[in-house]
Design goal:
The complex is a heterodimer of chains A (243) and B (531).
Chain A: H1 3-31, E1 37-41, H2 47-53, H3 57-65, E2 69-72, E3 81-83, E4 86-87, H4 95-105, E5 108-113, E6 128-129, E7 132-133, H5 134-143, E8 145-151, H6 152-157, H7 167-172, E9 178-179, E10 183-184, H8 187-190, E11 197-200, H9 207-218
Parallel strand pairs in A: 1-2, 1-5, 5-8, 8-11
Antiparallel strand pairs in A: 3-4, 6-7, 9-10
Helix pairs in contact in A: 1-3, 1-9, 2-9
Chain B: E1 2-5, E2 15-22, E3 25-33, H1 48-54, H2 63-77, H3 86-112, H4 127-137, E4 142-144, E5 147-149, H5 155-170, H6 190-211, H7 215-221, H8 227-239, H9 249-257, E6 278-281, E7 284-287, E8 290-293, E9 296-298, E10 304-305, E11 312-315, E12 325-326, E13 352-355, E14 360-361, H10 364-371, H11 374-385, H12 393-417, E15 435-442, E16 445-454, E17 457-464, H13 466-471, H14 476-481, H15 488-491, H16 501-509, H17 514-517, H18 525-530
Parallel strand pairs in B: 6-14
Antiparallel strand pairs in B: 1-2, 2-3, 4-5, 6-9, 7-8, 9-10, 11-12, 11-13, 15-16, 16-17
Helix pairs in contact in B: 1-2, 3-5, 3-12, 5-6, 6-12, 8-11, 11-12
Classes of the chains: A alpha/beta (243), B alpha+beta (531).
Bound molecules: iron/sulfur cluster (SF4).
Iron/sulfur cluster binds at residues 44-45, 47-48, 113-114, 152-154, 159-160, 203-204 of chain A.
Chain lengths: 243, 531
Amino acid sequence: MDKQECLDAISILGAGGFLERYKPEIRKELRSAESKVVWIHGAGCSGCTMSFLSADQELLSTILERECIIYHKTLLEQSGFFVDGVLMRDPELDIEYYLEDIEKTGGYILVVEGALVEGPANSGRYCLIAGKSVRERIIKAAARAKVILALGTCASCGGVPGDRRSENVVRDFPGVIFRGAVERRIILDEHGIRKPVINLPGCPPKPEQIMALLALLLLDKIRFPEDSGLLDEYLRLKVIKGG
Amino acid sequence: MEITLDPISRVEGHMRVLLEVENGIVKDARCSSTLFRGFEKVLVNQEPRRAACFTTRICGFCPTSHAMAGAGALDRIYGVAEAIPSDAILARNIIQGLDFISNHLTHLYLLWLPDLVNPAYKDIVSCNLWEEFTSRFTPPTFRIHNVHVPMGRSYAPALHTRKLLQEAIHELAEKEIRPIAGGLEIQPASENIQSISRKHREVMERLSSMLGIAWEEWIENTYLSTPGSALRYIEELCSVKTDYSKMGDFGLFMATGADVLGENESLMLDKCGCHDSGFLSFGCFPTDDGMVFRQGFMSSGLEYSSLDIDKITEDSAQAFYSDDKCHPFEGMTEPIPADEIAYGRKYTWVKAPRYNGAACEVGSLARLLVAGEPLITGLADAFRKRGFPVANVYMRIMARIQEMLVAGYLLEDWIKKLNPHGIYKTQAERPVFTKGFGIWEAPRGALGHWITLKNGVVSNYQIITPTTWNASQGGVIEESLIGSPICAMGNKYGIDCSNPVTALHIVRSFDPCNGCAVHVINKSEANIRSE
Ligand code: SF4
């Protein structure tokens, strides 16, 4: 199963058809896949996570059992623990320390679900996690990622809370790269982070689209910068454009 | 000493809890939802149907509930609330029943039961019990003492069952479930109905094996029985010292969760997460003979009174908004400026709804207590007679388990009544009223949408969600934490501030949904100008 075969299959059969047809191969390759996913929530509704959990159950089980997802706040055991303001550095219990640890190693696939939060007045204080803004958190995680998947309309361009009817809201809740449908943001550039970003819009994207795209990334079928040509002007994979 | 849990994992959305702890006992607790999405700004000035549609993106766990509550509000605004065809009411009940089971399974297997593999229990429960907990409930990617613990064997089947339930819901509603004034969007054909029925049967088989008892037998002895006999039935089940490995997942929880029940070792989950507030339910499953689960208020002393919706007020004094207190139709608030958003006197984005001025618990436990469901009522009586509060972690989990089984039982009959030639929608042409509300029981409890229109567009869209009741300042989560020990089994085996496992059990037992909890209607600038 090489890259071209996968892409051709997706463009002919669709994401769902591809997964159906290649399931045994994908599962086999997933078992030896080295890549890991760090999944961070910004301003979203967890609907994208729920959509992902509705994908093909065999592939999903393989991904979960193989520990492909090493950070996901809704699914994993750990929480953040601070005693008198000091982080308890127990990697088995402490999600914050755990994340720091993962970031040190780097090279993961960063999935961002939900919009970045800049408001109010560019402070980012509309969303604080462990005392820091989620914008800071995502930027920090992005710095050591190998590729970033902006999952769902929220992460791609701001999504529902970024509905362009209200200018405030668009300003306060941008996507990873786009603010609203067209305005390109340079938030990562501003922090000197040049990482490939793939947008998968859709509210939520279809389960099979999320699964197919994650599988391609986990199995290293698409790599950057070599494969930048596979993306369209909105940074969507041409064969999986989302909804 | 101050313990901050931030972020709390395995809850929907972003949540933080601050505990003031003395000698292992919580002296004060502050519960914060830490994300503001400015959601309702988007709703103002929209056409009402479009606005109601947007509300399904408040929360990915419960879009269905928002669609249904929104539909109720639209029904009133379009003047068709009294004209919804009985087939449509039946179908809405089916959607709700399936959604209860789906959400409760998600809560139990993904969010709550993994609590039982906390390393705190490793050396204090028997080896057999620990072995059962870890082999069943371990979440993905988990390690203890740097040793990889494989994912529990119940995890994937639970996800699969959830998927079946979602698919069954989608036979009656578009994939992107939408609030529809006057009924449903879809006319189910025979194939749809057969598919729902097939999936339902499969789900019930799976529930039986999770329980370890055939669901028919269980329902016969609990839901269709009296509180006294239901209690005796479960006491008998729990008093048999069975081999843990032979029990179903729910059976295992039932037998080892509570101190006052049964002969097995216990996690003492009935002694934590207690409070003295009352319980509120909007009631659900309307039929020709009234609601199957009646609506109303139940005091902590288990005295029932009927629901008066006008007694609901919302207070935002401790939330990151400018102060006010009002009826939901008038509830408009502004977030405070950036430099004031810090954890001080104000510490959350969640406003505080009150019933008759008091906090109350909502959710499965409230629903079943208010409805007088025999098993939960029997258990409640048993706790009260022994001088313990009715509200506790054990009861909350038991109520969810029971509600899944009861909903499943009710669904069997309802699905049979689905008519492929039925009438599922009344025409709803245009808004005839300027105000409308829809109340609904979401899996996590009482949910209300209040819509006000001006010149045909939304001027105010107020939502009170279950988690606002439970997780607000002075709400029942804070109340349950205060006075509670933080570590396993009432601190019996010592205090470890770096692993306050009981505090986590308590917070998660309410299944808080922070996405839902945080929203505020803002007068958008455009709106202010037009006024
Ligand atoms: S894109 Fe849609 S489904 Fe995903 S987090 Fe945003 S609102 Fe929720």
